[in-house]
Amino acid sequence: MKPTATVQQPLALTEDLLGLRAWRMPDLVAYQRSDDEWWVAPLEDSLPLLRLNRAGIELLTSMDGHTTLGGLLNKYGSWVCGPDGQTGRWHLERWSLPGYSLCYFGSEPPSADRHGAKWDLLLQQIREGWSGKEGFEGEEHLSGFHLHDITNEDQHFDTIETTVSHLFREPSEALQGMTYGRLLARRLRQLGWWTPKPRGILEVGGGLGYMAREIAAELSPEERQSTRYVFLDIAKPFLGSQLALAGEAGWNRSGTQANAEWLPFRDSCLDLVIDNENLADMTPVKLSRREMVSATGDMPIHQEAVDWIRRLRLPLDQDMPEEFMFNLGPIRFLSELWRVLRPGGHAILIEFGIEAGWPAPVKLPGHTEYEVQYTHLRHAARWMGFQQQYFPLPQFLAIRPDIRLLCTGATYSIQRFCEAEGKPFSIRAYTERELTEALGPILPKLMGCHYHEISDPAWFGLWDFKVLLLEKPGGAPRPSFRETKGFRWYSQR
Ligand SMILES: C[S@@+](CC[C@H](N)C(=O)[O-])C[C@H]1O[C@@H](n2cnc3c(N)ncnc32)[C@H](O)[C@@H]1O
Fold first, then answer.
1. Residue with CA nearest ligand 1 atom 25
2. Which CATH number describes the domain made up of 15-126?
3. Using a 6 Å cutoff on CB, does residue 53 contact ligand 1?
4. pLDDT digit string (tens) for 260-276?
């Protein structure tokens, strides 16, 4: 559930504050509604759009780091700054609050590096401020959220957690004119994962079902024939959409509601498992150094985590902190994969994560996910017996690093403007050409549209997403032919 905006008291404009300089957020987009009316969108989307007149937009554009808050107050404080009658003082008392996040007051800008990633950090801190509780929310928090708090599945990926595959669910210039799911299916075919054809595919945590739709679009009917596509999701509301899209795409499909940490399937019954952006949703455990040293967990779930770490002989950092997070859910899932995959079966796991240190929380509206520690996960996969390959996601998909995409923050603002105008606009990754096409006459009315190279951490942190490819050894030797559109192409070897 998305929390409603916390009521934030207007800022008291004290002497100390008046000496600070003011910067507007760099990726801010304003929409010129008419000759003398502009709209801007607060970060918290339960706050109404702000309507500004010429004085109001001038106040916003004056926040360039050269002017102090005191200077702005002197000049604009008593002016009416919008059609709703609020004065410059009213705006100055609110714009830097987390819910608005339109500007920052300080002695230095919160950015010194080339890409302004520190602005991004500031926004992240702001988000953390308005989401979830302080500290660790407990082992049951994530499964509880997915079981009980998903109420509007249609908007979930636009407002709560936008995924990479959701941003690229329609053909995109950035992906050589393909969708994410389609490109992924092409890569899996190139890897030989469709030779022989998988008979049973499981997609875990399929969200709205776009991946299944797009994989089907890439494969020929012959390649799909006699394959059963099974969805497993902890959140029932998503299963309906998954089954609908997969059915329209021609899959022989079924769905089951379950937690992927305990797969309700018999041993060795699946050929392929797809898990996209779901590992960080699985159970995290907060362990202490004392529990590790004594090999005794404070409660059964801690004992399970301690036992896993010892059994796997996980090489934990020397400088183990007093308390640290461990990805128990992903390890449970991995061991379930080993059980349910047939010899020769494959799994592809994609999620954001780290290779050193300890999983940090990523606060999202209503829930907190944890980074996947890939060194631990890969060690566990090796220990279980999997053969594996590992790539950064952009490298796996061969995405050109210099493709420029609209800042996602701008996309959210534009969606709000379009919604208020009764015009359709979807949250997606947009190149400049795609945005021009999508917005038509609205585009010239927008100020501040800003594009990032896809490799820039400020654009969605795509390089933090990793692909782990697993194979359970022991399958029959591969046939020496490829099948395309019903034809078999034999290799010369
Ligand atoms: C971030 S979404 C990713 C959705 C989709 N794969 C995509 O890339 O857009 C996570 C998905 O995993 C599901 N999920 C979360 N935790 C799960 C668990 N423990 N077992 C099964 N599904 C889970 C959610 O309901 C949701 O469908």
1. 235
2. 3.90.930
3. no
4. 999 999 999 999 999 99
